[in-house]
Amino acid sequence: MSLRSDPDPLADALLRPVRAGNAFEETLARLLQAIRLGLAAPGERLPPERDLAARLGVSRVTLREALHALQEAGYVESRRGRYGGTFVRSLRPTHPTPPAPAFAADVEDVITLRHVLETGAAEAAASRSLDPTTRRHLRTRLAECTGAGVADYRRRDARLHLAVAAAAAAPSLTAAVADLRARLDALLDAIPPIGANIEHSDHQHRAVIDAILDGDPQAARAEMAEHLAGTATLLRGFLT
Description:
This protein is 67% helix and 3% strand. The protein is mainly alpha-helical. The protein has a two-stranded antiparallel sheet with strand order 1-2. Helix 6 (132-145) packs antiparallel against helix 9 (195-213). InterPro entries: GntR_C (IPR011711), TF_FadR/GntR_C (IPR008920), Tscrpt_reg_HTH_GntR (IPR000524), WH-like_DNA-bd_sf (IPR036388), WH_DNA-bd_sf (IPR036390). It comes from Actinokineospora fastidiosa.
């Protein structure tokens, strides 16, 4: 079985058009899943970018970012020349480590709990009349996160999400989000840092904070849900 252009029900199911909201993350996860399920054998060349982009319904820029992330993670390699292209690597990637069943189950538990807690926190924060100190704190955390390098991003990202929880003014909720973040970071440590995802997250963070500061609970909840869905897609793609 392969990722050739020939009709293949499994390939059609895996390489169906992605949603626009988290196009990069979903493209990356679809390609990763296809490779891990053996649709492209080790040493096999992936279809041309134009074909893959068309099947996934994404731009070639988005596709190239996803392929670059897979190359950085050790799943594919790029070769130049007349017979060049993107090839599945024959060596098993050393990062991430294939998860144990219990580890994979924890991924779903964290994803579900995070959606419930953090979308609710964003909605609650946007429902409140925020004092100047809280509004300034949210803007500061957003500014710190925006444009941060890979080395600092996770810590600053955590502070931003905790700031949103704190803005809901429910100490138990903030504590729950903090505890959940420790579990989330353990999962994120098992996948490679991805620059394009960080850039995408910056835009989503701004949309979340803007909705909170504008006092729009429905928008805050929806923007946070969209943001969390991107991370969930990556976690499922790499770890389940």
